[in-house]
Amino acid sequence: MDQGTGQGTSPLTFVFILVPDYSALSLISALETLRVANRGQERPPFAWQVLSVDGGPVASSLGAEMPVDGPLRDIGRREILLLVSGANVQAQASPTLMAWLRRQHRRGAQIGGLCTAAHLLAEAGLLRRAKATIHWENRHAFQESFPDVELSDQVFLAEGAVFSTAGGTASIDLILDLIAREQGQGLANLVAGRLNYHDIRFLQRSARVSMPGRIGIRHAKLRLVLDLMEAHLEEPVSPAALADHAGISVRQLERLFRRYLGCPPKRFYNQLRLQRAQDLLLQSKLSVTEVSIACGFNSITHFSKLFRERYGVSPTQVRRGVSALPRLSGANGVANSSQNAGN
Questions:
Q1: Three-state SS at 51
Q2: What are the residue ranges of CATH 1.10.10.60 in the chain?
Q3: DSSP of 122-171, one letter per residue?
Q4: CATH 3.40.50.880: which residues of the chain?
Q5: Per-residue confidence band for 209, with pLDDT thresholds at 50, 70 and 90
Q6: How large is the average pLDDT for residues 136-141?
Q7: pLDDT digits (tens, 9 = 90+) for 108-128
Q8: Using an 8 Å Cβ cutoff, are 221 and 246 in contact?
Q9: The pLDDT of residue 213
Q10: Is 85 helix (H, G, I), strand (E, B) or coil?
Q11: By CB neighbour count within 10 A (0-12 exposed, 13-18 middle, 19+ buried), where does 283 fall?
């Protein structure tokens, strides 16, 4: 149905709720999409408002503070609530915010989470009967924290009354979908074209970004090995099994890793597992022992030793927030080689 359902009515208002370290890209992408949708219209079909938990300005992922229109309030019938978060999302689940989200859900509000906000929706108990999607860096921590929530690979989900996106430009996809529902697919297509997003939205179907793609590896056999490694971090696969999976010898496997990644397979595998451990320590409530097991380390002493060698601090220090760990170059702390571009 191309005409949508909202023509001739009051504007549909999007109420954005910001929490500290929210994704500036997710917010601005959504706001720009709405602005373009209103452009040139005698009666703009959309409005928006930006709120925070206490009504004060909120610092974004860029460090700049965003002024807001006020504190939390009840969401009306012609409004959609969009919660915007980013890094350190697990620290933003305050009792005040959780109680407010549950109240709005009981009142029948349409609620969405941009970037990592699916974590907050799940913490509030809003995803018990709904699928969700989240930024790929938070997928493993989310799955460990909320094993009963079905996690999707889609860049956004808008099924029922609870929405979620996978971060970045995925907020554009969600807003375009909501524009189409409200004003018809014709306007949504026009907005996508004005944003030079028409082709991208159909290509960008999945939120899952493979590890080889993240670090620029295009060698077919090496990609097979890396995908298998990433899928088996809890129960590591032997070098012989990795080589067999790619149809090469162990010696060829060693050569590929040294040429494209600058280290042997075992060291790279450990780096993947330690990166996963870092993510879980920062983004989940798992104990250090549980993180060690989830990343395939049977000995917590060995795990702690390797972690400290890698990052300069212990897992316990990270869990207690004593030290903030910088992200290393590349998706998994491996410097990308110029050779990665080759086949």
A1: strand
A2: 211-341
A3: HHTTTTTTS-B---GGGHHHHHHH-TTSPBP-BSEE--TTEEEE-STTHH
A4: 12-203
A5: low
A6: 86
A7: 999 999 999 999 999 999 998
A8: yes
A9: 57
A10: coil
A11: buried
**Residues 6+ positions from 164 with CB-CB distance below 8 Å:** 112, 113, 117, 118, 121, 127, 132, 133, 134, 156, 157
The pLDDT tens digits for 282-322 are 777 788 998 898 888 989 899 999 998 888 889 988 887 64
pLDDT of residue 189: 86
Give the CATH architecture of domain 12-203: 3-Layer(aba) Sandwich (3.40)
- Strands 58-59 and 65-66, by their bridges, are antiparallel
CA–CA separation, 174 vs 132, rounded Å? 13
Residues 2-16: what's their mean pLDDT?
73
Cα(329)–Cα(73) distance, integer angstroms:
42
Model pLDDT for residues 220-255, shown as the tens digit of each residue: 888 889 888 988 888 889 999 999 999 999 999 999
Cα(191)–Cα(243) distance, integer angstroms: 48
Check if the beta carbon of residue 315 is closer than 8 Å to that of residue 326. Answer: no
The residues, ordered by sequence, that sit 6+ positions from 297 with a Cβ below 8 Å of its Cβ are 273, 277, 303, 306
The answer to whether 108 and 161 are in contact (CB under 8 A) is yes
In CATH terms, the fold of domain 211-341 is Arc Repressor Mutant, subunit A (1.10.10)
**Which residue is associated with the tokens 């897992």?**
315
User: How many angstroms separate the CA atoms of 193 and 132, rounded?
Assistant: 27
